[in-house]
Amino acid sequence: MLVGFDSARIGVMTQGSEHFTAENIFTIDSSHSGGTISGNITGLGTQAQTIYASNVPKMIRSNGTGTPTLTLATQDMSADVLQTITGMMKDASGVYSLGRGMQAPYCAVELTSSDSNGDPIYLALLKGTFSFPDFAPQTNQANSTIQTDSIQFTGCARNADNLVFKMAHASDTAFSKTAWDSQIFPFDYAVVDTLTVAPTTANLAVGDTQQLTATLSPAGANQAVSFASSDPTVAIVTGNGLITGVSAGTATITVTSLQDISKTATVSVTVA
Asked: What's phi and psi for 107, nearest 5 deg?
């Protein structure tokens, strides 16, 4: 169940790549660029094909996805954000232009809603373009009439992985916001040299917890990692690196770089 629509983030891909820079990721919420009103995603499912044999339906095939689209309604989106995501040009005198030869850049879009407990639910279309919205000025009839912005996003698959959509629940103990961000808005990261984790040992009683901190160098490397326990009956670990002792015994927590899975580090856990 989706409850409310908290915010949206739109990232504009660097030309010629499927990566992003921080200055080209825009947040739309109550404190940035107006606010979000609604986001309607359609077309994720493909058209099912029924195969008949001997005059009866024998098989139904439904492979891949359809053509995903998003209709995003916002309140008073910044003109500069709209210009950037739709490919308009802005000259030195502040005049926006749209015409022949102008092309909308590829973008990725993240929508943030909540579940019934208030925990975030994230939805993302990974690649596509926005079309320029229509304008419909209306006369003021006694009260101020504020028009909302409605823009259309048409999605396609990323070249890197042929994916079009991702979603995640923050309430899932395996969820990591850092890992999510790196999958939706991947940057041009530096090559990972080393991965370290602290502490490297943990001695816990049943029910005790220990927070792990992973560090990758250089600083420009993707800091997203995964955590896995060799024996969840002894110790479990969340996607954010919080260990909990479950029962007496020993276990190993393995930390793996999501940018370079050959870079790992381990933590020895003893539960008494």
From this structure: -135, 165
Q: For the chain, give every domain's residue range.
A: 3-184, 194-271
For 204-231, the pLDDT digits (tens) are 999 999 999 999 999 888 888 999 999 9
Output the CA angle 269-253-263, nearest 5 degrees.
Answer: 140
In terms of pTM, does the model score above 0.90? no
Contact by Cβ (8 Å): 167, 126: no
Say which DSSP state 99 is in: -
What letter would DSSP give residue 20? B
| Rounded CA separation 267/249 (Å) | 14
Fold of 194-271: Immunoglobulin-like (2.60.40)
CATH architecture group of domain 3-184: Roll (2.30)
**List of residues 6+ apart from 173 with CB closer than 8 A:** 236, 238, 239
